[in-house]
Amino acid sequence: MFRQAGFAPALDSPCTKPELLDEFPYLSMLKGSLDAAVNRPATPPHVQITRAVQVNLHPTLVSAPARSLRASPRCSARSTRRR
Q: Which superkingdom is the protein from (predicted)?
């Protein structure tokens, strides 16, 4: 996927192959990022947070990006209240 579509590799093995490093010299920098990567912290209300983003923020971002930046604090505060 990396070579054909340009997606950054999720594993560091392509970042150490000499033939790829010759063609894509920035892979050595990506390897540093992969080495420093950590898992997301566990969030107990993850389902609720994901739903709030999907239902409230995502449609706004898709339909009107400039307006969505002004509206996002209200959307996130309103959607994450306990029900």
A: Bacteria
